[in-house]
Description:
The chain is built from eleven helices and six strands. By secondary structure, it is an alpha/beta fold.
Amino acid sequence: xxxxxxxxxxxxxxxxxGATVDLAVSGGPDSLGLLQLALAAGLAxxxxxxxxxxxxxxxxxxNFVSAVCEGLGVPFxxxxxxxxxxxxxxxxxxxxxxxxxxxxxxxxHTMDDLVETMLLNMLRGAGLDGLSPxxxxxxxxxxxxxxxxxxxYVHSSSLRPRVDETNESPAFRRNRVRHELIxxxxxxxxxxxxxxxxxxxALMHEERVWLDRLxxxxxxxxxxxxxxxxxxxxPTARLRRWLRVELxxxxxxxxxxxxxxxxxxxxxxxxxxxxxxxxLGGGRRLARRGQRLTLTKARPLR
Length: 302
């Protein structure tokens, strides 16, 4: 039975009917569902597809999406991207895809993706930002839609999605969270944990918004001009939140990112005079001279 389209649209976060939007469509069921629902919502759609040439079938995926768009009468833009095979490939591929497309492009991430990202961030030691991903994100209109419901919706249509075999590979950490960790959590909790964790993410997002409002005055304090004598008087939670903003990594196509909890704690030690400097990762170094802080590129090892 085809899921009710109106019921699905009611939990989507699309802009008003007639709005112009860009969609990232890979050809898989999530992005095809995004495309179909956006059209059902009366949006003026342009589809973007990135051909990364890594998998032998990647060009076939591009041709498939192009043909779907032609059949639907939807504008199609192909982005040709080459990604070198090597370490941290998943992250680099994601960055390259996002850099190639418009910053406001919508993706087909579902509630299940939100929870997987939340758990991955938790395993990295994330704070409130990492534990409330996608909530309120205008580029994630399907964040309250379950993946299984979306797939049923797509499979009940005339479209037959492409299958990305890498989504089953245990070589990628997200796949292990999806196929191993979440099923174990579901078994232990004796319930579906995805809606539960998604609600927790929404609650943490509300806390995050409130803290952001409380810390608006701190935003005018720049790291280069900050006086450590003053910073040492701040409550630890306030100092930690300020450092998470000041030490965000530069945007390399997938947005900037806050430092890990471990990096922030080491940075606090520098502020408090317990350490002279610390390496932040990504080739960056935070140091204190007198009562002033400097953020520089770390010296290469000899």
